[in-house]
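for the recovery benchmark. tokens below, seq after
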């Protein structure tokens, strides 16, 4: 390297070769006593003056061509020219007042070597700086991409940022639709819908997809460009750079294409930058696709939940319930649902959840009647590892799991007084502490409680905390028993039958008039649950396209409730007769078939019992020994 301190400082401080040449060429010209010294670039047979010192002169093209071919110093009259080592397309040329002597020629050659070394150092530093700047820009771009969770918006952002970073006219991302053997390019300006669909064997993009290798086309290789695509886009491609998009598991996702470099040809640095961009793009595309799939599944689950929690029926009680549910759903008010077993309390709670803004968050149901005193805190509030004997790992409680969503507390009336106190504290403070832990955990779960008991009476008898009752009882929904819903019974039966017939892969039968009438007369001690079970049995076991009365096999309530023996719709004589039949049957069963014992239990003589049974149309076979 030259001992000239100005030369050395220029090498150290120069940001690029243009700045280096502006300082170094005058120094070398002065040492050589040259009135014109220039760096000339060869561009496919044409000569371009990159930088010079002195009075500009017409270049001797023949000398330049000869010097480039020979590789050494070439003399022609008052000119000296030589290719710059390690820079195949560059030459240094100087003009002198007279024909240069051997000493000048030797000095010229040594200066060329200095220039070559200086340029290499500055170019390497320039490439490193440019790479760092590009990588910083790419990292910023990648961070932006990874925050974009909508595919169309992501593809648009990718195109816009890459055109700015690499200074090109257009960019497109082609995603590979393998099943249809198509490439889907987006964004595609000038194409209706902004989407270009081409066969996966088309043009440069098709080559890249199948080979997995980058491809570059410059202005002198136009034959490789598929002009049919240009025609579709209404665009003229001059230069092109395309690299593959490869997913995290090595799966070919598509290709990233840039068209028309604004300041010349695509370079190795451009290709390197686009490969880096494509790597981040593939990650962002996979993440966005996965996110969209999860959102799709979540929305589908919410839609199915909404569909599965319909309030079927047109009776006044259901109409009023439907109206109230619609009003309270989008609030965070606590709701208390009252009703007999099987009336659909959980269905109503789900309806409230899926109609609310919490519909995409968890719905967690807890049966309080199944929670023993020892399990209560662990189940509702969670526990830390080692908190008790069987606590082998940390486990979040139902309040944590339901945070942001809805927690349904069924059979709330069966919760112990101690459990009620702990529940009240969480409802008021919105904070839980796991068993064995000390860290307060915020919970934003909306609580809906339900019971088949009369909570007001439990409060009066000190079996339910009054403060918890008022905390839960902000909005009360009372569900009518099925027997009081009139024509809704048939409507519900048809609804359930259709659902189960779809699962059974058969067409749904219709009810005969007699069957419909029988459904309406039944007392439905099991409410909607009993009706649903009956329809499931019919869907799988009945045959034909009609359901008649003889296929309606009702099951009497095991509770021993006499109201299950007759329908309130029956006339008094019919209801009385049915009661007597069932009552006598039960007494005979209780007497283990002994008519004598049964008559005694009924307060009748055995002969009078036989007579009564005949009047009621009952069989009278004597089972006494």
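predicted aa per position
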């Amino acid at each position: 390297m030259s001992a000239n301190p100005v030369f050395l400082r220029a090498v150290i401080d120069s940001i690029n070769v243009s700045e280096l040449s502006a300082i170094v060429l005058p120094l070398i010209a002065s040492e050589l006593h040259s009135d014109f010294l220039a760096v000339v670039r060869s561009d496919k047979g044409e000569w371009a003056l990159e930088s010079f010192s002195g009075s500009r002169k017409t270049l001797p093209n023949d000398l330049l061509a000869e010097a480039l071919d020979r590789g050494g110093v070439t003399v022609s009259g008052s000119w000296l020219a030589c290719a710059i080592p390690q820079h195949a397309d560059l030459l240094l040329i100087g003009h002198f007042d007279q024909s240069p002597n051997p000493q000048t020629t030797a000095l010229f050659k040594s200066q060329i070597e200095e220039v070559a070394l200086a340029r290499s150092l500055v170019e390497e530093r320039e490439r490193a700086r440019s790479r760092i700047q590009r990588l910083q820009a790419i990292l910023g771009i990648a961070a932006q991409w990874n925050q974009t969770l909508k595919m169309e918006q992501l593809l648009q952002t990718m195109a816009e940022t890459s055109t700015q970073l690499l200074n090109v006219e257009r960019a497109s991302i082609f995603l590979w639709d393998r099943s249809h053997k198509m490439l889907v390019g987006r964004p595609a300006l000038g194409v209706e819908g902004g989407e270009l669909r081409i066969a996966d064997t088309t043009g440069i993009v098709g080559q890249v997809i199948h080979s997995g290798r980058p491809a570059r086309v410059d202005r002198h290789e136009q034959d490789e460009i598929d002009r049919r695509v240009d025609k579709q886009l209404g665009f003229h491609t001059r230069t092109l750079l395309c690299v593959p998009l490869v997913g995290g598991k090595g799966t070919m996702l598509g290709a990233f294409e840039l068209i028309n470099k604004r300041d010349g040809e695509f370079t190795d640095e451009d290709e390197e930058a686009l490969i880096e961009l494509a790597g981040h793009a593939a990650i962002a595309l996979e993440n966005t696709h996965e996110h969209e799939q999860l959102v799709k599944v979540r929305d589908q689950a919410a839609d199915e939940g909404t569909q599965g929690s319909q309030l079927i029926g047109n009776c006044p009680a259901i109409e009023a319930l439907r109206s109230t549910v619609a009003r309270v759903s989008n609030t965070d008010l606590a709701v208390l649902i009252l009703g007999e077993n099987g009336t659909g309390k959980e269905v109503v709670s789900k309806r409230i959840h899926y109609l609310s803004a919490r519909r995409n968050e968890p719905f967690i149901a807890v049966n309080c009647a199944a929670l023993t005193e020892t399990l209560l805190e662990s189940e509702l509030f969670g526990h830390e590892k080692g908190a008790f004997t069987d606590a082998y790992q940390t486990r979040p409680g139902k309040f944590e799991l339901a945070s942001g969503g809805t927690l349904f507390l069924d059979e709330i009336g069966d919760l112990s007084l101690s459990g009620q106190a702990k529940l009240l504290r969480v409802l008021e403070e919105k904070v839980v502490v796991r068993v064995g832990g000390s860290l307060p955990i915020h919970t934003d779960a909306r609580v809906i409680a339900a019971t088949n008991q009369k909570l007001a009476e439990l409060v009066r008898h000190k079996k339910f905390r009054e403060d918890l009752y008022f905390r839960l009882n902000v909005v009360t929904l009372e569900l009518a028993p099925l027997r009081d819903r009139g024509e809704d019974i048939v409507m519900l039966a048809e609804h359930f039958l259709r659902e189960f017939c779809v699962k059974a892969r058969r067409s749904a039968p219709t009810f005969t008039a007699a069957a419909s009438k029988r459904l309406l007369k039944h007392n439905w001690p099991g409410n909607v649950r009993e009706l649903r079970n009956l329809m499931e049995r019919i869907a799988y076991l009945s045959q034909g396209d009609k359901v008649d009365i003889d296929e309606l096999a009702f099951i009497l309530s095991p509770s021993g409730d006499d109201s299950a023996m007759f329908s309130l719709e029956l006339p008094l004589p019919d209801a009385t007769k049915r009661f007597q039949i069932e009552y006598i049957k039960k007494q005979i069963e209780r007497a283990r078939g002994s008519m004598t014992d049964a008559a005694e239990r009924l307060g009748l003589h055995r002969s009078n019992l036989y007579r009564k049974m005949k009047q009621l149309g009952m069989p009278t076979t004597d089972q006494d020994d």
